[in-house]
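An instance as discussed:

___
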Amino acid sequence: MRFFALKGSEQLGAAAARALSIDLDPHEERDFEDGEHKARPLVGVRGRDVYVLHSLAGGEGVSANDKLCKLLFFLATCKENGAARVTAVVPYLAYARKDRQTKARDPVTTRYVAQLFEAMGTDRIMTLDVHNFAAFQNAFRCESIHLDTRKLFAPLIGKLAGDLPIAIFSPDSGGVKRAQLLKEALEAETGKEIGFGFMEKRRSRNVVSGELFAGDVADKAVFIVDDLISTGGTVLRAALACRERGARAVHAIATHGLFGKGADVLFGSQAIDRIIVTDSVDSAAVAKARYPQAPLDILPIGCLVGKAIRRLHAQGSISDLIGIDD
């Protein structure tokens, strides 16, 4: 096995490597004055099972496009130099939200990104809590592996709720399935009945509307669940609605903490008690440092990623790892 982590994903890569009880393999990345770049492995890859980790969230000084291009070229380089199999380990997959046409002549960018990976000779892609699981699976013709974080978040939910009854809440209809799966995982772990709810959200030309609210949250600890938090507007809107209906505590849970422009409003709100994300992208740690008083907790995922890579390399079961029933 060879395992590389590209620039910007080194910390997560190192954590996954520790879980594998190996060191990250060395590689070179060079940026040129005209904006072009070169990257290459500094160890032989011929005949090897190669894993390349890079999380594709844009950040300060680097765009998602830059990261995507560098990852694609590095995967192709490994294939060019004789790798037997190349797996892209992409905890956060850029453009996964644009998986369908919502306006006339819209792009379906998720599918275009999949075609780019396949054109580079990628044999397999692994990602974490993608925006739309079905769209992800349908976009890729190469093998696609999807990890989720239910087993990571479940113990923390019980701890934060204390003696209060729990309700799992989706901030929009598109996340209902994700919230239901977490609800079922909690019920299996605790043996208790878990409440459930969601609210309506429609977005058109960046204007959000919809007032339908389903579920009983009064006197409960509510956990708003989403795949990502960007500006935080969707989560905050749901939190305020839950507070208006009598929620005793409100917590926000998301796998990917992007925390872009406007997230300061989320961190300054009294409507949310805790915000819990993973370290799938570096922007979560940046936000933690920038807003030290924010009620923000970051769960590590390096161990999960490392275990998944080990199972893939040994032809083991991913379903068993993340708790999917046969």
Remarks:
- The longest helix spans residues 64-80.
- Residues 2-148+303-322 form a domain with the Rossmann fold fold (CATH 3.40.50.2020).
- DSSP finds eleven helices and 16 strands in the chain.
